[in-house]
Amino acid sequence: QLQLVESGGGWVQPGGSLRLSCTASGFTLDSYAIAWFRQAPGKEREGVSCISSVTTYYADSVKGRFTISRDNAKNTVALQMDSLGPEDTAIYYCATTPCSAVMAGLGARYGEYWGPGTEVTVSS
């Protein structure tokens, strides 16, 4: 069974950091482009970062604060989130989807495998 599972969400104060992980089972992540999406209450799901064999992408809203990386040995893709603010509060999902689609704002439409999400809350 092919699955993605996110972990690492939680509550953090503004200015704090969290590290999210996306772990795959049933397949190897290094064969796929992996994207992180987030969805805040009442808002559409947005792609925040993506990594493939040839590119790394960050949405303008997270550029300079978030870092995406792979650990092929652990079959995971991580999203290091620093300088978090209340606007980063959302449910974060990882998915297999072409980075070109994420860059075009269409990543959510082309996601093939999705994790169930992990909740991130930034508040004081």
Report how far apart the termini are: 40 Å
Q: Strand pairing plus helix content: what structural class? A: mainly beta
What's the number of extended β-strand segments? 10
Outline the biggest β-sheet.
6 strands, mixed
Per DSSP, what share of the residues sits in E-state strands of 2 or more residues?
A: 35-45%
Order of helices and strands: EEEEEEEEEHHE
Q: What is the spatial order of strands in the main beta sheet?
A: 2-10-9-4-5-6
- How many helices? The count is 2
Shape: globular
Poorly predicted sequence stretches spanning 5 or more consecutive residues? none
Fraction of residues in H or I helices? under 10%
Radius of gyration equals: 13 Å
Mean pLDDT across residues: 95
Would you kindly provide a written description of the structure presented here, covering whatever features stand out?
The chain is built from 2 helices and 10 strands, in the order βββββββββααβ. Strand 5 (46-51) and strand 6 (56-58) form a beta hairpin. It has helices spanning 99-103, 107-110, and strands at 3-7, 10-12, 18-25, 34-39, 46-51, 56-58, 66-71, 76-81, 90-96, 118-122. The protein is mostly beta strands.
